[in-house]
Amino acid sequence: MIKLTIPHHVSGLWIPVLSSNPLFSGSIGAGINLSVSSVALPVEDECTIRLNNQKVFHEQAKDVCEFYKTKVGVTVESPFNLGKGFALSSTLLIAHTLVNSIYAGSSLLNAFQKAHELEVVRGTGLGDVISQYYGGFVIRTRPGPPGIGEAFKIPVKYRVKLIVSSLPYSEPTGKMLERIPLSHYEKGLSLLKKVASSEDLMDYFNAAKEYTQGIFDYSSIPAEILRSPGVVGLYLKKSALIIWVEKDHVTEITDILSRRQLFFMESEISRTGVEIEYSGKPP
Fold first, then answer.
1. Contacts of 15 (CB under 8 A, 6+ apart)
2. Of 98, 124, 131, 229, which alpha carbon lies 20 to 30 A from 57's?
3. In what order do the strands lie in the sheet containing 162-166?
4. Looking at the predicted structure, is the pLDDT value of residue 199 above 80?
5. 283 within a domain of the structure (yes/no)
6. Half-sphere exposure of 272 toward its Cβ, with a 13 Å CA cutoff?
7. What protein family does this chain belong to (predicted)?
8. Is the CB of residue 14 less than 8 Å from the CB of residue 126?
9. What is the pTM for the complete model shown?
10. Of the candidates 81, 86, 72, 16, the residue with the CA atom closest to the CA atom of residue 51
11. Structural contact between residues 2 and 235, judged by C-beta atoms closer than 8 angstroms
């Protein structure tokens, strides 16, 4: 049996870089991978992608099985839903390409490249695959998947306590990208240069907030959280609200979210990227 554990990536800075070849397309930027993960298992004799027992991504599943000449599906359990900003589309495609790659005896690196290609071609993402490959706090400096793009996992100086919430909002990635003006991407590039220079998590949170305030509605965040002295930093990506909170203020922030009946989970920054666990002999 194969078990995959895939961290969720929430990008705070992204600047699209597109070309005629999807493997050389994607985005540069920065983001953090959460210790909150999805778990994926193979489903034999069924070419499907299931998210929390619901079939999704029918065309992508077909593409993957045709590419590997296999008939293997994947079932993924996740605390999140699609379109919320938690890189769930890339999570599903990483899971399906990796499982089929293992069953076909093919390259695991090529599986990540296939997942990235499908993300770009289908318009569901640009830079999540390479970030989830590494895990942790990642700065992306060249677009593309692992083996083609370039990204760096930055050591974090702090013991970071995160509260992750999902606000009542969703938006497909393609629509989000369409409404962002070129001038805002230029601002993002300037912010990215500062973060890449300092490699500091606090600088990243400040830059991510400044960048995403021009894209998403921060008025949807409870005012008590924005005013709280216990919040070290926060940013919003679609509905994904990432709050860096001082340890002594965790209960205060979770109580606010509970009163608002908002979903939340406690998390940290992941220490690892995608993990593959075999029980028994590999297929």
1. 27, 28, 29, 185, 188, 189, 192
2. 131
3. 231-237, 240-245, 162-166, 263-267
4. yes
5. no
6. 7
7. Belongs to the GHMP kinase family. PoK subfamily.
8. yes
9. 0.96
10. 81
11. no
Other beta carbons within 10 angstroms of residue 150's beta carbon come to: 13
Q: Residue holding tokens 């306590």?
A: 161
Query: Could you give the number of structural domains in the chain?
Result: 2
Q: Which amino acid is at 224?
A: E
pLDDT score, position 159: 83
Contacting residues for 180 by C-beta, under 8 A, at least 6 apart: 215
| pLDDT of the residue at 169 | 82
Is residue 189 located within the same domain as residue 221? yes
Q: 24 and 118 in one domain? A: yes
Give the mean model confidence (pLDDT) for residues 174-199.
95
Here the tokens at position 21 are 């070849």
Are 50 and 112 in the same domain? Answer: yes
Give the other-Cβ count within 10 Å of 251's Cβ.
11
| Structural domain of 69 | 2-154+273-278
Residues 119 and 9 occupy one common structural domain: yes
Q: Which tens digits make up the pLDDT trace of 20-46?
A: 999 999 999 999 999 999 999 999 999
Q: Read off the CATH number of the domain in which 122 is found.
A: 3.30.230.10
Q: For residue range 71-98, what is the model confidence (pLDDT) as tens digits?
A: 999 999 999 999 999 999 999 999 999 9
Q: Go through the chain and tell me how many residues it has.
A: 283
Q: What percent of the chain has pLDDT over 90?
A: 94
Q: Are residues 177 and 139 in the same domain?
A: no
Token pair 């894209």 in the structure block, residue: 215
Asked if residue 263 and residue 215 are part of one domain, the reply reads yes
The answer on 137 and 14 residing in a single domain is yes
Q: Please report whether residue 229 resides in a domain.
A: yes
**Range name among 111-115, 150-154, 279-283 with the lowest pLDDT average:** 279-283
- Treating both helix axes as pointing N-terminal to C-terminal, what angle do 88-104 and 108-122 enclose, rounded to 10 degrees? 140
